[in-house]
Write a structure and sequence with these properties.
Blueprint lengths: L2 E5 L2 E4 L4 E8 L7 E7 L6 E6 L6 E3 L7 E6 L4 E6 L8 E12 L3 E7 L3 E6 L1
Length: about 120
């Protein structure tokens, strides 16, 4: 099972950029669909972006399309979230997430989370 550690959060001005990284330790990173979620103060955790195993397929929530880019480097066991044109409403704790199915022997979903990294965007 993977362990995930996020980094790259911090303070940015509106219109600025940040790049989040999520480093995975463990085995079979390439078998995980990787995603970023975020949770703003007082709100529920929400999906931000996901990338499929090979990195070719990517998905975004509407509010970040055209501004955020998710990517992965399976050789480095790392997933990234490039965030451009940041807005104050992007302020949240960002969590890295990984999901895969294992058969041991019954098929079950395995889901792992990082500890989160805080992104604050000032107006």
């Amino acid at each position: 099972q993977l362990q995930l550690v996020e980094s790259g959060g911090g303070l940015a001005q509106a219109g600025g950029s940040l790049r989040l990284s999520c480093a995975a330790s463990g085995t079979a990173f390439s078998s995980y669909v990787m995603a970023w979620f975020r949770q703003a103060p007082g709100k529920e955790r929400e999906f931000v972006a996901a990338v499929l195993w090979s990195g070719i397929g990517t998905y975004y929530t509407n509010s970040v399309k055209g501004r955020f880019t998710i990517s992965r480097d399976n050789a480095k066991n790392t997933v990234y979230l490039q965030m451009n044109s940041l807005k104050p409403e992007d302020t949240a704790v960002y969590y890295c997430n990984g999901r895969t199915f294992v058969a041991d022997p019954t098929v079950r979903l395995v889901e792992v989370w990082g500890q989160g990294t805080l992104v604050t965007v000032s107006s």
